[in-house]
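Researcher: I'm preparing a figure for a lab meeting and need a structural model of a single chain. I don't have an experimental structure, so a prediction will have to do for now. The sequence is pasted below. Please return the structure as tokens so I can convert it later.
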Amino acid sequence: MKILDRYIIKSYMITFTTVFVILFFIFVLQGIWLFISELAGKDLDTFTIVKFLSFYAPTIVPLVLPLSVLLAGIMTFGSFAENYEFAAMKSSGISLQRAMKWLSAAIILLSLISFFFANNVIPESQYRFLNLRKNIVQQRPAMAIAEGQFNSIGTITIKVGKKSGDNGNELENVVMHVKNQQLGNGASTVIKAKRGLLKSEKNSNYLQLQLFDGNYYENVLPKDYNERKKVPFAKSSFKEYILNIDLTKLNTSEGDESDITSEKMLNINELTYTIDSLQTNYDKDIVSYSENIILRSNIYTPENSNDSIIKPVNKKVENILDLFNFTDKKRILEIAKNNTASVQFSIENSNNDLMYKKKNIYAHWIVYHEKFMIAYSCLLMFFIGAPLGAIIRKGGIGLPIVFAIIIFIAYHFMNVFGRKLAQEAAISPFLGTWLASIVLTPLAIFLTYRATNDIGLMISFDWITEPFQKLFSKFNKTNKQNDTTQHTA
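Model: Understood. Here is the structure written out token by token.
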């Protein structure tokens, strides 16, 4: 490695480290603001708060690292071009491609480290982060529920008007919504109580909520499909009602990027094994549901019934019901109606169950691909930032930050958009996870090509305008010839 290579790597790494530390600190502050309701007013010691943030910090590295690589590349290479250091290299016969050789190797090494970090460190930090939150909730049960706002814990959403007591475990004006998968995304049970009391045991994964003087509302799902259109429900009152809340499902609101799910705690080998098991069970469920539907659709046929109401005839009829009397017609239609409603109800339930399992499989695949995507994003952002810095020829923190923010916002938006579509099973997990990388890879190739060939950022559109120019030139020439002919005549 020559002195020039060491100089380039040193300049880049100093800038990268500075940018990474600053951005990391900013995102940690965002995390403090995100969990301020869990940390403030809970009488937590400093060591517990430091552990809380240290377990959360690794989860923001996949967001900070690509942005740091991009910004450091634009700033470093922009500074080289602005100070005519690249001009000096070129006059000495050293191309930009040669100047990026060892730095590219360093970025590849950084990508491998980021993959190891995503596969080993982040799952462990997720696990420790969840257990620390669970332990804090067990010691201070009121921490699981913030005052004056809805808090989501698994399938339960709870809101309390006021908390009191030494540890805030005495509640007033409690409102709870409990979801049921069979009834869709809406709340199937609503519980309201004037008072509540939170209890927990040291080694238990459950938080006990004891409610007093309240009402209980529950949606009822009738067996008859037509009866469900009336939306029946049951209502009752109680003096005391006890509910156990699973703390392993403790999370924030839906859609929050900080939500901790089980698949995020697994490494590549564990994800591969889990996905294989889930896919095998999913395939078995499809076969089982299909056989069930076939059996339901053949409830009443002459082959499987000794009491068939269908009689053989020798004459031609246009409507098969004309073969039966009024009583038999009514019986046939009633059987057909019940069979159709039963099959439709079974299909809907089976479809909801299969969709839930499919989304769970997709969620595991998304985490699987994200571990590789983090490593690739470092390479992608470097080969966008470094050539772009050499082209714009501006260092410092002015114009490079503008370009970096625009590119990273586009990258992050496409990444989140693709992930959300994949989570809803609208597109494949591979496409959803790699959407941003697929879109921006041609940009990286384009910028690298133009920078290494010293072409610049301006793009020639002559290949588009030239045919129109020739057409108009030919048209004007024809008009001039016609005018000359008329003038001569």
